[in-house]
Amino acid sequence: MLWLIYGTAGWIGGQFRELLNVAGQKVVSGRRVTCLKDVEEDIAQYKPDRIICSLGRTHGEGIPNIDYLEKQGKLKDNIRDNLLAPMFIAQASMQYSKLAAPIPTLYIGTGCIYEYDNCNDLSHPFTEQDLPNFFGSSYSTVKGATDLLIDAYPHVINARIRMPISDDANPRDFITKILNYSKITSLPNSMTVMSDILPILLAFTHDGKFGGRVNACNKGWVDHDWILKTYQEKTGEVLNYELEPVEEQNTRLAARRSNNVLSSDKFEQWMKILSPDTRKLYYTPHTLPDLKKSIETICIHRANVKLSNTQEAGEARRLLVTGGCGFIGSNFVNHWIKTYPQDSVINVDRLDTCANIGNIEQPDSPSYKLVVASINNKDLMLHLMKQYDITHVVHFAAQTHVDTSFGNSILFTESNIFGTHCLLEASRIYNKLRKFVHISTDEVYGEWPAGSCHETAVLNPTNPYAATKAAAEFLVKSYGESFKLPYVITRGNNVYGPYQFPEKVIPRFITTIMGNEKMTIHGDGKQVRNFIYVTDTVRAVDCVIRKGKPKMIYNIGSKDEIKVTEIAGILLKLMKPDVKLEDSIVYVKDRYFNDCRYSVMTDALEGLGWKQEVKFDDGIRMTIKWYQENPNHWQNDGNYSTQ
């Protein structure tokens, strides 16, 4: 589905764009709207399926507009951006659709169009049927007029957002604003937590069966003093502000300040008739989130972000890394010790076949400690968390080899599900983690014949290994919902590079060629995999630890899509260019079920600032070099698989 957004460079429009990218939707930006023809030409050019009008205080071109609540003499600009532009978009989307019906359109309105005669009387919240009655600024007056006029277009959702709050401390965010007030008037208000409400609005627009005014606010209301007290409690930051006496508050009311509570009944009714597929696509909750709970969560998140920023400046983090002697885990530990020497890394690994203490490059570092143990010991995990005052858990430990899962699947249940559950339970009791990072796999999506899957895709694991990883994910999510565990999940492509145990296809082929043996290939070798060099994966996990949002899932992937037989050919050409491929491979019985292709989208991760850096040609050469220089790092017992 293609979305045309007016105002993508703005605060709210930018958040819509990010959410749509995560959901795998295509997004294009509309031009600066000065007349009806501007919108008509955009629609003719892009042929959008859905349109979002998020204009107002910031133009689509990214030119800062005037804050009409603060600046005077800007009525002309106000009318152009907050009245005429939305009307042009509504008119064009009705007349120039590529469909027989109008293009479903979302208009971002405002709840700043009402005021109570008596702000303490909350027995009758404003509903969508109430007419605008606040004219304290040109901004509100014009927005109120748009609120009325846009009713003429039944295909438009007029989403009234009230005092928006974001996860991050954006200058437009309401919490950020009042933190800078030295004196506040604490009055009850409805508010809109963007991370809660915007996905719901996208789902409404996607379904295309909604229209008209709707109060797009969280359930409940709060006053300003409660927000500031909650912020202090959750962040530990001492604020210096003064609560105005009642007499002064009444004076402000006489000056016609807008303070109000909106009814969310209609919004909740719409949520009940959303289609299940759309709900899944945008991570839409089944019930309208409670305002106070959401604000508490945001305050905790901001405290963690602030702490993370200070840690980057020198304050130490204390990481409990599971499976840190394995392939990806050890590369992560090596990276973290080098990059953040002020931090501590506690590596818990039971040192099974795929682990090697020699994978750690600085085992004597004062910031590193190895604990040889199983994560299935919940009491020990809790003891380590308390002993070392752990701030982050990075959970790599898992049984990962697909072939083994066909013959010994119970082991995978014990390690991947029960082990994860023990770690989660220890984290719940400990209750001091700033982030729990769960390392999963793209195989939880199952086979993906064409295109790339996004993080909201339905999980469809097709082998016991992938099924246990999917089950572990559901456990992690449940602890996030039930016990507010601040988790983040990553799902990665096939990783290759130094220190990988030679049961996987690339190191197995390399060591086979080095031993002058034939490479064994499952089936016809036409299975397609995306391969990513281990340092790119490690940087992605680093990025998620520092910047990832709680309850988010991030795909880690590359564009290097290669067939198994092609890998054999590439390696042979680099290592023994004079030998023919047909003389160096042997085909063996295929797996019970062998997914033909995996592929993931990485828009959400790239939104945090990550990019793939190592091309396959460079990565494969570095990998070959490492195995040639370290021929005895792994003891080859001849039982390794190829894929």
Automatic annotation (TrEMBL):
GO terms (BP aspect): nucleotide-sugar metabolic process
Enzyme class: lyase
Keywords of the record: Lyase, NAD
Domain NAD(P)-binding stretches: 320-623
Pfam families in the record: GDP_Man_Dehyd (PF16363)
Sequence intervals crossing the membrane: none
GO molecular function: dTDP-glucose 4,6-dehydratase activity
Catalytic function, reaction form: dTDP-alpha-D-glucose = dTDP-4-dehydro-6-deoxy-alpha-D-glucose + H2O
UniProt cross-references to Gene3D superfamilies, sorted A to Z: NAD(P)-binding Rossmann-like Domain, UDP-galactose 4-epimerase, domain 1
Membrane keyword on record: no
UniProt-listed Enzyme Commission number(s): 4.2.1.46
Domain of life: Eukaryota
Cofactor requirements of the protein: NAD(+)
Family: Belongs to the NAD(P)-dependent epimerase/dehydratase family. dTDP-glucose dehydratase subfamily.
Name assigned to this protein: dTDP-D-glucose 4,6-dehydratase
Species per Swiss-Prot/TrEMBL record: Adineta steineri
